[in-house]
From TrEMBL:
It comes from the Archaea. It comes from Methanooceanicella nereidis. Its main location: cytoplasm. GO terms for cellular component: cytoplasm. GO terms for molecular function: ATP binding; dCMP kinase activity. It holds the Pfam family Cytidylate_kin2. It is found in: Cytoplasm. Belongs to the cytidylate kinase family. Type 2 subfamily. NCBIfam families: cyt_kin_arch (TIGR02173). ATP binds at G7, Q8, P9, G10, S11, G12, K13, T14, S15. Keywords: ATP-binding, Cytoplasm, Kinase, Nucleotide-binding, Transferase. This is Cytidylate kinase.
């Protein structure tokens, strides 16, 4: 089974992916992790690397291609990333969302930075990604019609969201 898990920065994608992997043994393929590794290799912040990616489409295209190749390599794969639900042929496509204020609080805590810094950086990152994906793929990230399951994570922690997703997985496996 192939599942894609997309969502806004700070919506809980990584935490939920880990919970699902732990529960079902899915291999996680993370676009964000690959993007962060590339930024670190180049000695750049995420914002700097995002600005570079805005000018150089080969960065996003390489990450997407790698995810496609890896998604079919394992019997049970969870592909995590904002474009995964649009670029991967999956059995279940999930999108996580939550208000910017809550996401900024989560990011500030996770990154050990101020709320204001997290809020500002997240807004810049989102604008950058919306622009890149529109320009490179003609994808509007605000159009969620491609997803089978959309969960607002403001009411649940990663374990709660995983319980919701588990019901969908179990239903699909029973067919």
């Amino acid at each position: 089974m192939i599942i894609t898990l997309g969502g806004q920065p700070g919506s809980g994608k990584t935490s939920v992916a880990k919970e699902i992997s732990s529960k079902y043994g899915f291999v996680i393929i993370s676009a964000g992790e690959q993007f962060r590794k590339l930024a670190q290799e180049k000695g750049m912040s995420l914002e700097e690397f995002g600005a570079l990616a805005e000018k150089d489409p080969s960065i996003d295209l390489a990450i997407d291609q790698r995810q496609k190749e890896l998604s079919v390599k394992y019997p049970d794969t969870l592909v995590e990333g904002r474009l995964a639900g649009r670029t991967i042929n999956a059995d279940l496509k999930i999108w996580l969302k939550t208000p910017l204020e809550i996401r900024s609080e989560r990011i500030a805590k996770r990154e050990n930075i101020s709320y204001d810094q997290a809020y500002d950086e997240t807004r810049v990152r989102e604008i950058c990604e919306l622009t890149r994906y529109r320009n490179y793929y003609e994808i509007d990230l605000t159009d969620l019609t491609h997803y089978d399951l959309i969960i607002d994570t403001k009411k649940w922690d990663a374990k709660g969201v995983t319980k919701i997703i588990a019901k969908a997985i179990e239903e699909l496996k029973s067919k």
